[in-house]
Every structure is written in structure tokens, then in C-alpha cells.
Write a structure and sequence with these properties.
There is one protein chain. The chain is 28% helix and 33% strand. The protein is an alpha+beta fold. Strand 9 and strand 10 form a beta hairpin. Helix 5 crosses helix 7. The two termini are 25 Å apart. The mean pLDDT is 85.
Length: 272
């Protein structure tokens, strides 16, 4: 078995195994694996983001499966990020793939088992209310998680613990926000860059005030804009595991009919 970094010089041998990453803003690394005879067996592509490594694709050709190739590719990435600021490797996969046993054997924790929906920004801005709330630019009291100090980070951990959120490490702090207009933390949006958009992992407002939801959404959309993800075709993704979350997403985007089902997915995370 041989692991190789996929570069422009050898990409033609692996191109059918790796995704198109031209629209991804983070640093993409692709690794290929070959058998002892030099035959291409599979490939892994990941995106290095702030504190997080996201798996974009992992595919082993059928005739080379059950030989440890996929695990070796993941182990290579694990080794490469040791001692860096990256805290976890994250991968979403469809429930029907049946990959849970594989990821658990590789040391991943399995979290969400939920329906993934997406909506294009162009559809969101068709709602007059949403468009006006975003255009207002009102983000008072909203702070990026990446800008929090030690004391506020402890407040966030306590807040997440009170709602049984699994961990504070499995989201992107630069894409996540907290609301504390009076110094008391009372709202949180946790998200991460995902495909050609952003994935909202969790959104909670203790008061239930809809204006707070829109403030968080305003900051997230501005983050997408600065990351080059501001076209009408850019998408927001929602992990929805109950009707309450669906109702919230519907309110934010101005109608359930805008939402596209991406299927039922699971989230596997390997804490580094």
C-alpha cells in the first residue's frame, strides 16, 4: 500500500475519485492510495478550516475494500494535524451508507442523526420580513465565539451543558455567535462552513425573541459574504431533528417550501 499527496502532477490518475473543490474557500488536501502493484485504489479529500478538518469525500473502489485503505487514509490525516490548532475531524454521511461501524472503529464519535435541509440565499431574500431584518444591519449584542475571552468561554460551556449540547469543540468559532446584550449569555448560534455555504448545527434563544434569531442570521450571512459564499445559489444547511427546529428554520427563511431535503445524515467527529 502506498499513500500519496494528490497534486497537479498526478491528479489525472485520481480525478474520478475526488470532488470538484473550485468553490471551496478553505485549504483542500487530497490523498490517494495505491496497492502494492501501483493500482489506484481510492482517495480522501479534506478541507482545513479554523480548528476543524472537514472530510469532503472518502472513497475506496469496490475491489479494494476491506483491506484497511480507508482507515490508513484517515490515520494519515490524523497524524498530519497533530500539534496543530485543529481540534477535530468532522464528516457528514448519509444514513444509508451504513458507515457508522467503520467510523466508530476509527475512533470517531457519532452525534447527530437528523434530517439535513438546505435553502439557497436567493430564496431566503424572497421573504420581505427576512430581507428587511437582514438589511437593517442590527447585530447589537452579538459576538463571534472566536472573540470570546476565558470567562465568556466558560459561560458558553455552561450554556451548552445546560442544553445537553455534546461539545463546544465540534463547530467553527469564527462561524458561530453568542448573544449577551446585558452581559448575560442568552442566545447561541453554532455553525460551520459546509460545501458551498454554512451548516447551522444549533440555534437557541432563551427568550424566544425572533429579533435575536435574525441578528445571529445577519452575522452568519455577512461571514458567508466575506468568505465568497454570497451568491444567490449559496446555501444554508439545517440539521433538523424535531418539529420545533423545523418551525424555527421555517420562520427564519420565510417558508418551508423553500427548503430542499438533503436526506437523513449522521455526523461523525474525531477529537484530536
Amino acid at each position: 500500500m502506498k499513500i500519496t499527496r494528490i497534486t497537479p502532477a498526478n491528479e489525472r490518475f485520481f480525478s474520478f475519485l475526488i470532488p470538484d473543490t473550485s468553490d471551496i474557500t478553505g485549504k483542500v488536501i487530497s490523498l490517494g492510495v495505491m496497492d502494492d502493484d501501483g493500482n489506484v485504489a481510492g482517495a480522501l479529500s479534506v478541507c482545513l478550516e479554523y480548528r476543524m478538518v472537514s472530510v469532503l469525500s472518502l472513497y475506496i473502489l469496490p475491489e479494494f475494500r476491506r483491506r484497511g485503505y480507508a482507515k490508513t487514509l484517515l490515520d494519515t490525516i490524523k497524524t498530519s494535524i497533530e500539534g496543530t490548532d485543529h481540534l477535530a475531524i468532522s464528516v457528514y454521511y448519509p444514513e444509508e451508507e451504513g458507515a457508522t461501524a467503520f467510523y466508530e472503529a476509527c475512533g470517531f464519535d457519532i452525534f447527530e442523526d437528523a434530517n439535513l435541509y438546505s435553502v439557497m440565499l436567493g430564496e431566503i431574500f424572497r421573504s420581505d420580513k427576512t430581507r428587511k431584518m437582514i438589511a437593517s444591519g442590527n447585530i447589537s449584542g452579538i459576538v463571534n465565539v472566536s472573540d470570546l475571552g476565558g470567562n465568556d468561554n466558560k459561560k458558553l460551556e455552561r450554556y451548552l451543558t445546560s442544553y445537553d449540547f455534546p461539545s463546544g469543540d465540534f463547530f467553527d468559532p469564527e462561524w458561530s455567535t453568542v448573544g449577551s446584550p446585558t452581559g448575560q449569555l442568552n442566545s447561541v448560534l453554532l455553525s460551520e462552513p459546509y460545501k458551498q455555504g454554512a451548516n447551522i448545527l444549533w440555534l437557541n434563544v432563551r427568550s424566544g425573541d425572533p429579533r435575536a434569531y435574525y441578528k445571529h442570521l445577519n452575522v452568519l450571512i455577512k461571514k458567508m459574504e466575506t468568505s465568497g459564499l454570497n451568491s444567490n445559489e449559496s446555501r444554508l444547511y439545517f440539521m433538523i431533528d424535531n418539529e420545533k427546529t423545523m418551525e424555527l428554520a421555517t420562520v427564519l427563511i420565510g417558508g418551508r417550501w423553500h427548503m430542499k431535503s438533503e436526506g437523513r445524515v449522521l455526523h461523525a467527529v474525531y477529537p484530536v
